[in-house]
């Protein structure tokens, strides 16, 4: 699987917006974080709101030049400035470190995040730099340290809570659903809970059923939270930073197999919009919606499809809650065919919700039923071959596209 | 100001004495001497009283061999394990499941409202005592009137704190306004003490437009960030790990404040109780855990809830200092909470207080407790072991309160409450837009669409929606 992203063509995707953006770059900087963050949550579904959210973001002093703006639309290093190369877990760490430098209220808590550096080394070195209190090793009780993070957030801190594996956060479901998602609402807006809950999930590495969970399926119904999934070092860092700055609770899904992806990312500071999808490869024939690791399977299938004469448009939806129906809608209106490729199980997964959303909103634009490729409704087995069969493979994607494009 | 404790002179010798009675010793007999403080402000300096040989209880003391392991002095050998050295014994002895003697209860006032001679307690001024009594009485009136309002169908639900007024008010009086309170749901008295008005209580119960919670929570789920009282959330014990988090946050900011959280006897069975206490101990967070052991968790008696000697013995299991207090004795609760608060803040450690009491009322308006307990048991606690009457006797004996004051207070409170209820009832409810606000900080597109859809529906068919339902 190629590690470097093939995003060469993607830079042109949102170019009409770029020209608007560069004009807005000279807007005055905002001083208060809370004012800024209020603008981030406009999910783009019509051009006005989408445009304004982009514009506001561009006027941040963090993104000083047009290069970064372009780099944000393409998840690659086509920026003219040389960046630095790093692995995805290092990108996450860089994002986290920058935010901890910037705001003394940001802290990290979880199991083995301190001197051990985290099970996937995302928090490596942070305890040495920021101390044992700000990078807190907790006893083993997910419900407790999630609850602790919520209590700390209600008193003004901005905790980043790490689940050693996403599956363990099922133990924290009570705190996440009943308190994290709800307390801002039930307190009448008196208390905010700006936590970030993150951790590795997904299938791969033969970790067995309990360590191969796709928690985005279970959490997607909880009102009051946002969910994002990162897939490249570029968007990993950007989403991490945006999630920390958001006033809402955000769940950031990482994938166990993607931590060692290498990419060159910009040197200057940037963040990614939490509600925005990423155009990976523009095309004409069919829209393929995917996220996290499946993006790479889709891109691999795309190579085969291009050789066969198809022109798939690949979108990494990134924002799992809420969906970026603006980007998705524009794509559907162009191609009239949709294939969703996900790692969730067939029943009740992100794909199921996305299918419903697309059918509801863009029914008139579809020339074929929305097809969704997901994992089967089985616990993930350990044996390598069995595990591979539960995950959607590029060959299946190619077959599905051919079927849809008949 | 720091609280100094005298360790009983005979503690060590009594420990040795009791070694033969295989026990899990929980000798945390702290008997605070009357405290002298220079200012009402807290400072981090501490001083020794010249009168008594007070010694700050240090953790060194706690490494005394508590349980039965025979201290054979010749056996100076110890085993080295992760966690430190442990002595060893060749005698196989199991630590018994319970101590022969239950942990005694700290109390200051007897049932007749007289201070027990030689008690240790923090003196309470006339002003403070009168205020405490007034608030306890007001809480009683409030509970009575709101309960009646629910029975009349004016509010949908209510939960009384009858029998626990001393815990509510005395603990609140012992805290500073900066201390963050994470309640369970039977502690409205803390909010009352801090200045929440009867009108504000009524507004929340009616869920009207003036409610700070914007009509989103059930009645009695009060919350006020201004008064440092976290909004009540129904699931039991979820506030305990959150309290550890608040303590962590206060510790990080080095604030002169602690987190105070309440839980009932039933709530201590939840996993969050274990986790919250463990975390607070490991983090060395300034948290005061107050457990209201009122004997009943809806219909579950404490004999069916746990097998330990109440909750106080569990503190030591987590390395937390604990005390058992007579929860119906306002002065004892005041002293204990005040001392615990000082310890938590100056020593940066959690403290556990078990306040023994009785839930006189039903669990809530959805419960009829006569179905599972004897009516005369309830009567006994209501009349003979009433915390408000007990404190009243003491206040009256000091000449600070009279029958006239009593009737004036109760009738005023009653009148104010009835007016508050009438006003809250008439006040209009939240508009439709509040259904969708505050889910996130800014409304996302899907919620905007849903709001629009609902608005159109209501405007098209107003007859299908209740009157006074406005968009």
UniProtKB/TrEMBL annotation, chain A:
Q: Where in the cell is it found?
A: Plastid, Chloroplast
Instruction: Give the UniProt entry's GO cellular component terms.
Output: chloroplast
Per the record's keyword annotation, is Transit peptide included, yes or no?
Answer: yes
Q: Specify the species.
A: Arabidopsis suecica (Swedish thale-cress)
Which cofactors does this protein require? thiamine diphosphate
PANTHER family, sorted: PYRUVATE DEHYDROGENASE E1 COMPONENT BETA SUBUNIT (PTHR43257), PYRUVATE DEHYDROGENASE E1 COMPONENT SUBUNIT BETA (PTHR43257:SF2)
Q: Which UniProt keywords apply?
A: Chloroplast, Metal-binding, Oxidoreductase, Plastid, Potassium, Pyruvate, Thiamine pyrophosphate, Transit peptide
Keyword Coiled coil included in the entry's annotation: no
Q: Where is the organism placed in the taxonomic lineage, from the top?
A: Eukaryota, Viridiplantae, Streptophyta, Embryophyta, Tracheophyta
Main function? The pyruvate dehydrogenase complex catalyzes the overall conversion of pyruvate to acetyl-CoA and CO(2). It contains multiple copies of three enzymatic components: pyruvate dehydrogenase (E1), dihydrolipoamide acetyltransferase (E2) and lipoamide dehydrogenase (E3).
**What's the protein name?**
pyruvate dehydrogenase (acetyl-transferring)
Instruction: State how it assembles.
Output: Tetramer of 2 alpha and 2 beta subunits.
UniProtKB/TrEMBL annotation, chain B:
The keyword Ligase is annotated on this UniProt entry? no
Cofactor dependence? thiamine diphosphate
* Cellular location(s): Mitochondrion matrix
**Catalysed reactions, as listed in the record:** N(6)-[(R)-lipoyl]-L-lysyl-[protein] + 3-methyl-2-oxobutanoate + H(+) = N(6)-[(R)-S(8)-2-methylpropanoyldihydrolipoyl]-L-lysyl-[protein] + CO2
The answer to whether UniProt assigns keyword Metal-binding to this entry is yes
Give UniProt keywords alphabetically.
Metal-binding, Mitochondrion, Oxidoreductase, Potassium, Transit peptide
EC no.?
A: 1.2.4.4
What residues does the Dehydrogenase E1 component domain cover?
Answer: 135-430
- Please give the InterPro entries that the UniProt record associates with this protein: Alpha-ketoacid_DH_E1_comp, DH_E1
GO cellular component term of the entry, any: mitochondrial matrix
Q: What is this protein called?
A: 3-methyl-2-oxobutanoate dehydrogenase (2-methylpropanoyl-transferring)
Q: Which family would the database say this protein is a member of?
A: Belongs to the BCKDHA family.
Q: Which residues form a coiled coil?
A: none
Q: Which organism encodes this protein?
A: Arabidopsis suecica
Name the GO terms of the biological process aspect.
branched-chain amino acid catabolic process
Quaternary data: Heterotetramer of alpha and beta chains.
Kindly list the GO molecular function terms attached to this UniProt entry.
branched-chain 2-oxo acid dehydrogenase activity; metal ion binding
């Amino acid at each position: 699987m190629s590690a470097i992203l093939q995003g060469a063509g993607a830079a042109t995707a949102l170019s009409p917006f770029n020209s608007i953006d560069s004009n807005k770059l000279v807007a005055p900087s905002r001083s208060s974080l809370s004012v800024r963050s209020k603008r981030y949550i406009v999910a783009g579904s019509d051009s006005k709101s989408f445009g304004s959210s982009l514009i506001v973001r561009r006027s941040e002093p963090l993104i000083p030049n047009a290069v970064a703006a372009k780099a944000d639309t393409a998840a690659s290093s086509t920026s003219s400035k040389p960046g630095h190369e790093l692995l995805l877990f290092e990108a996450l760490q860089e994002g986290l470190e920058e935010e901890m430098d910037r705001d003394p209220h940001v802290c990290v808590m979880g199991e083995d995040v301190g001197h051990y550096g985290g099970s996937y080394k995302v928090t490596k070195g942070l305890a040495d730099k920021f101390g044992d209190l700000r990078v807190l090793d907790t006893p083993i009780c997910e419900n407790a340290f999630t609850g602790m993070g919520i209590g700390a957030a209600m008193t003004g801190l901005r905790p980043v809570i790490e689940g050693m594996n996403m599956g363990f956060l099922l133990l924290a479901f009570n705190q996440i659903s009943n308190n994290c998602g709800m307390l801002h609402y039930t307190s009448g807006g008196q208390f905010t809970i700006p936590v970030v809950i993150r951790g590795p999930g997904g299938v791969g590495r033969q970790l067995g059923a309990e360590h191969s969970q796709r928690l985005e399926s279970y959490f997607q119904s909880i009102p009051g939270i946002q969910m994002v999934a990162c897939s490249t070092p570029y968007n990993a860092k950007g989403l991490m930073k945006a999630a920390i700055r958001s006033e809402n609770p955000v769940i950031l899904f990482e994938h166990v197999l993607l931590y060692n992806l290498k990419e060159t990312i910009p040197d200057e500071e940037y963040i990614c919009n939490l509600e925005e999808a990423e155009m990976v490869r523009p095309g004409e024939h069919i829209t393929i919606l995917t996220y996290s690791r499946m993006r790479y399977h889709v891109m691999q299938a795309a190579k085969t499809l291009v050789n066969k004469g198809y022109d798939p448009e690949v979108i990494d939806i990134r924002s799992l809650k809420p969906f970026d129906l603006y980007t998705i809608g524009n794509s559907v209106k162009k191609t009239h065919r949709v294939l969703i490729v996900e790692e969730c199980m067939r029943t009740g997964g992100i794909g199921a919700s996305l299918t419903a959303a697309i059918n509801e909103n863009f029914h008139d634009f579809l020339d074929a039923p929305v097809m969704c490729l997901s994992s089967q409704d089985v616990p993930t087995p350990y044996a390598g071959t069995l595990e591979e069969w539960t995950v959607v493979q590029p060959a299946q994607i190619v077959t599905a596209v051919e079927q849809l494009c008949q | 100001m720091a609280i100094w404790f005298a360790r009983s002179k005979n503690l060590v010798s009594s420990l040795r004495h009791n070694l033969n009675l295989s026990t899990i010793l929980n000798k945390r007999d702290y008997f605070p001497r009357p405290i002298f403080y220079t200012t009402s402000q807290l400072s981090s300096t501490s001083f020794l009283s010249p009168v008594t040989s007070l010694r700050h209880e240090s953790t060194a003391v706690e490494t005394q061999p508590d349980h039965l392991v025979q201290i054979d002095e010749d056996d100076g050998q110890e085993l080295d394990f992760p966690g430190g050295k442990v002595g060893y014994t060749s005698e196989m002895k199991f630590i018994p499941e319970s101590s022969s003697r239950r942990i005694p209860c700290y109390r200051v006032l007897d049932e007749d409202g007289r201070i027990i001679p030689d008690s240790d307690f923090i003196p309470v001024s006339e002003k403070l005592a009168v205020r405490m009594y007034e608030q306890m009485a007001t809480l009683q009136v409030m509970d009575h009137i709101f309960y009646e309002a629910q029975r009349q169908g004016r509010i949908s639900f209510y939960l009384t704190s009858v029998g626990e007024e001393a815990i509510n008010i005395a603990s609140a009086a012992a805290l500073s306004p900066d201390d963050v309170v994470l309640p369970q749901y039977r502690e409205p008295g803390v909010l009352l003490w801090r200045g929440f008005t009867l009108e504000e209580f009524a507004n929340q119960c009616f869920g009207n437009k003036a409610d700070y919670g914007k009509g989103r929570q059930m009645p009695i789920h009060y919350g006020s960030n201004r008064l440092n009282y976290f909004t009540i959330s129904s699931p039991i014990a979820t506030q305990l790990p959150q309290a550890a988090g608040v303590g962590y946050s206060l510790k990080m900011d080095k604030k002169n404040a602690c987190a105070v959280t309440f839980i009932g006897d039933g709530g201590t069975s939840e996993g969050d109780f274990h986790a919250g206490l463990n975390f607070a101990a490991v983090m060395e967070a300034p948290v005061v855990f107050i457990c209201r052991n009122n004997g009943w968790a809806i219909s579950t008696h404490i004999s069916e809830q746990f097998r330990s000697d109440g909750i106080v013995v569990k503190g030591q299991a987590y390395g937390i200092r604990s005390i058992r207090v007579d929860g119906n004795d306002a002065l004892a609760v005041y002293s204990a909470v005040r001392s615990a608060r000082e310890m938590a803040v100056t020593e940066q450690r959690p403290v556990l207080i078990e306040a023994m009491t009785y839930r006189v009322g039903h669990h809530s308006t959805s419960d009829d407790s006569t179905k599972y307990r004897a009516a005369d048991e309830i009567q006994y606690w209501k009349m003979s072991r009433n915390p408000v009457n007990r404190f009243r006797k003491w206040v009256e004996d000091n000449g600070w309160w009279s029958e006239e004051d009593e009737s004036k207070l109760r009738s005023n409170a009653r009148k104010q409450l009835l007016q508050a209820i009438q006003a809250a009832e008439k006040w209009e409810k939240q508009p439709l837009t509040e259904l969708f606000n505050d889910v996130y900080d800014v409304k996302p597109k899907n919620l905007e669409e849903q709001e629009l859809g609902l608005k159109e529906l209501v405007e098209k068919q107003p007859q299908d929606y209740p009157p006074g339902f406005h968009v």
